[in-house]
């Protein structure tokens, strides 16, 4: 979906403003938002892809007016209600009946191991690669309503395969309960002039990691 | 908004506090686990990890070759592995090519090496313009590159996370790894900056 998250190449957002001596968190709630989001994710009711989709599905006016941790919290509330872990009424009232702990509630003692393990997305594939490094390809045009990792500014563009990373979980299905359906992932390089025409900065290139079904032969 | 009695608080402070309270009551999270997660990123996982990797690559050619070939394994050998660093690629700057990393679609970032991303990395301004006007964005960081240096921007669209290995600065010959690591800034490992030059 080319929602508010699909920012590559857009104008109007102004200059980048690095903050000198930026603190790790700008308010106490940001630290809690990080911890709550990761602890709730560890319950295993949704994938990272589904949580990304929940964030990018926020209305554009809210997305652009929210700090990043606010986007996380709004999306987390949506995920918790969607998966029947909280009711809208409980959220509105800010209180709930005490319950027996969830069987997969993240134990403080397990935090280091869980964070150190992460969630690798590489998967074995039995199919042969469709494309080889050095081959010219074109990205497909798509008007996909759901989650995808092909940014708009790279759709319908010519590029060159640089690397083959083997099979990886396919976010477009995994975000929507459609399973991992792993596909081959490639690094594809695009010349700046093929993306921005004569306005491209001379000699600039952009690469992205793209799944096989995003690509076609030229 | 929940919690009328909290209305003297920042609305997000109140909202997050209310959410943590209900999740705790319902047995979905343990606040001590939240503390442990925050503590991990506040004190253990940060850009000092990436700086140690870069300093070693600068001073150990064999390690640099391993890092270029299989960054995930090379970095894991130094004890840095985990969430948002499951699959890593190191990209090396040269006089001819400068590398820089962005995530236009969200905020993908190598947490195991750099910690949590700064606000500017997650901002629409950076995500929008880094792919279309990289040289102009680098100038906003005070980073001016020779016209002859090409800029390669890596958009992190999958679970592969990128570490930029900057060029070793002149005047750093003979420095110990710890002193080298002190030259490696976070921005130099994202590609929006360059390492410090020894005084």
CATH topology of the largest domain in chain B: Nitrile Hydratase, Chain A
Can you write the helix and strand succession of chain A as a string?
HHHHHHEEEHEHEE
Shape of chain A: globular
- Poorly predicted ranges of chain A (pLDDT <50, ≥5 residues)? none
Largest interface: A-B, 100 and 80 residues
Mean pLDDT rating of chain B:
95
What is the name of the CATH topology of the largest domain in chain A?
Answer: SH3 type barrels
Task: Sum up the overall morphology of chain B in one term.
Answer: globular
Separation of the first and last Cα atoms of chain B: 53 Å
CATH level 1 class label of the largest domain in chain A: Mainly Beta
What is the highest CATH level, the class of the largest domain in chain B? Alpha Beta
Number of strands of chain B: 4
Instruction: Work out the strand percent of chain B.
Output: 5-15%
Oligomer classification: heterodimer
Protein name (chain A): Nitrile hydratase subunit beta
Family (chain A): Belongs to the nitrile hydratase subunit beta family.
Pfam families (chain A): NHase_beta_C, NHase_beta_N
Keywords (chain A): Lyase
């Amino acid at each position: 979906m080319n929602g508010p998250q699909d920012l590559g190449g857009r104008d109007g957002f102004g200059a980048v403003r690095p903050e000198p001596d930026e603190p790790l968190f700008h308010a106490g709630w940001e630290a809690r938002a990080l911890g709550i989001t990761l602890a709730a994710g560890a319950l295993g009711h949704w994938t990272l892809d589904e949580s990304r989709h929940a964030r990018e599905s926020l209305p554009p006016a809210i997305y652009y007016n929210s700090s990043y941790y606010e986007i996380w919290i709004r999306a987390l509330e949506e995920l918790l209600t969607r998966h029947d872990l909280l009711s809208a009424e409980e959220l509105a009232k800010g209180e709930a009946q005490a319950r027996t702990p969830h069987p997969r509630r993240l134990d403080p003692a397990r935090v280091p191991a869980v964070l150190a393990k992460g969630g690798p997305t590489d998967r074995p594939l039995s199919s042969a690669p469709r494309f080889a490094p050095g081959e010219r390809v074109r990205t497909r045009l798509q008007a996909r309503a759901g989650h995808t990792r092909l940014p708009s500014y790279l759709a319908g563009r010519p590029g060159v395969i640089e690397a083959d990373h083997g099979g990886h979980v396919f976010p477009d299905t995994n975000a929507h309960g459609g399973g991992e359906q792993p596909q081959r992932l490639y690094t594809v390089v695009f010349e700046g002039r093929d993306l921005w025409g004569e306005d491209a900065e001379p000699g600039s290139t952009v690469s992205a990691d793209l799944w096989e079904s995003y690509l076609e032969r030229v | 908004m929940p919690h009328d009695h909290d209305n003297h608080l920042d609305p997000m402070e109140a909202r997050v506090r209310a959410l943590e309270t209900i999740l705790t009551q319902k047995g979905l999270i343990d606040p001590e686990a939240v503390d442990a997660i925050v503590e991990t990123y506040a004190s253990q996982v940060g850009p000092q990890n990436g700086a140690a990797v870069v300093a070693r690559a600068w001073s150990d050619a064999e390690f640099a070759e391993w890092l270029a070939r299989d960054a995930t394994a090379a970095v894991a050998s130094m004890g840095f592995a985990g969430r948002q660093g499951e699959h890593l690629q190191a990209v090396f700057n040269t006089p001819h090519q400068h590398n820089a990393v962005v995530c236009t679609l969200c905020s993908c970032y190598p947490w195991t090496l750099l910690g949590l991303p700064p606000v500017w990395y997650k901002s629409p301004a950076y995500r929008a313009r880094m792919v279309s006007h990289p040289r102009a964005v680098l100038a906003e960081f005070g980073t001016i590159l020779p016209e002859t240096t090409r800029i390669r921007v890596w958009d992190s669209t999958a679970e592969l996370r990128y570490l930029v290995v900057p060029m070793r600065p002149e005047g750093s010959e003979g420095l110990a790894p710890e002193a080298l690591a002190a030259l490696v800034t976070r921005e130099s490992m994202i590609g929006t900056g360059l390492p410090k030059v020894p005084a």
